[in-house]
Amino acid sequence: MAKVRATMHNGRGRNAKGFKVRHNDRDFDTSRAEHINPEPERKNRYFIVEADGTVNNHPQISFETHEKRMYNHLFSETLSKQAERHIKSGHRERIRTPDQYRTAIRTCPEETILMLGTRECHADKQAFIKAVNRWCQQMQTAYGTHWRLLDGALHFDESTPHCHIRAVWTAEGKDGLQVSENQALRALGIQRPDPEQPEGKHNCPKQTFTRQSRELWIAAAREFGIEIEDIPEMPGKATRTKEEYIAQKIRKEIVELAEQRDQIRTEASQAASERTAIQKEVADLQQTKGLLETAIERLRAVLKPIQRLWDKLATYHITPDRTVLDDIIEDAHTAPVLEAIQSL
Questions:
Q1: How many CB atoms lie within 10 A of CB 273?
Q2: Cα separation of 205 and 104, whole Å?
């Protein structure tokens, strides 16, 4: 097998919104998604990590439901303490629910996309599955005290096999367990690449973590016989010409636009599915309304002879000022029946 390139991308979302996990476990109508191949041999693999750390390879709930449960399990106590402080200080607007905490861009899960190769040439399916499993095991061993693995989806129904891994950074704060990447990295003892230089965007502990986790990904792939391309795709930033830098920037923008396009297609598919469900509900309600109207008409037809009987009883007099009907409706149980009939 030819050498393939091992790629890994981390992120939480775009445009101040976290990535939607429904894409990962296909919790939407995939029939409208042109980039998804439904053939049986392209079947995806999914797993979730329970609160006690056990891995469930056949989840019966959606990733979104699972992540809601996990955020409630991990952070509800902390958020309750914060809420008490905000109420006392008169800042109720700062109170957050576990689900708001889950979806906020700064505290939502971080997503890692793992891939080995391209559409034209990629790793064997079984080898890829084993490499992902090994990488997850090594990540949990190395960072699991503060890098909490939540769920994963191995996608084989798109052009290039890849895996979505979602995890949340946790660390102890003054109110209890909270989401904090910086504090988690410090607690793990991960240093910035150049400790002699000030910490900044290009010299921070996250860069060290990214390098280490990438090395674990390459090592996991090689463990299962996957040959990895070592030669960089582009020269380092310091040695690039202006044209090379522009070319790479354009390629990056193309990839981002393609991702945005796929996200828009997914959201459009979800919206179409929801619209279809609403249309079906409206049709069902209209059918029910028609059935009820028919039932009322039939009831009216049945009650017409009864109404005529009431009218006839009103013409029979027991005494000059008292009819048979008057005598009947004195019964407290009969009067409401008469009123009901007359109201139809």
A1: 15
A2: 22
Q: Would you state the pLDDT for residue 172?
A: 96
pTM: 0.67
Buried b (16+ CB within 10 A) or exposed e, 24-42: bbbbbbeebbeebeeeeee
Bridge partner residues of 164 (DSSP): 113, 153
286 CB burial (10 A radius; 0-12, 13-18, 19+): exposed
Query: What long-range pairs does 287-295 form, CB within 8 A, spacing at least 24?
Result: none
Nearest to 43 by CA among 30, 34, 56, 62: 30
| CATH 3.30.930.30 domain range(s) in the chain | 6-231
167 exposure class (CB count in 10 Å sphere: 0-12, 13-18, 19+): buried
Task: Please tell me the distance from the alpha carbon of residue 157 to that of residue 129, in angstroms, as a whole number.
Answer: 14
At 49, give phi and psi (nearest 5°).
-110, 120
267 confidence band (pLDDT: 50, 70, 90): confident
Q: How confident is the model at residue 225 (pLDDT cuts 50, 70, 90)?
A: very high
pLDDT at 234: 55
**Is 6-231 assigned to CATH 3.30.930.30?**
yes
Query: Is 192 in contact with 205 (CB distance < 8 Å)?
Result: yes
CB 194 within 8 A of CB 203: yes
Q: How far apart are CA 344 and CA 338, in angstroms?
A: 10
Would you state the pLDDT for residue 67? Answer: 97
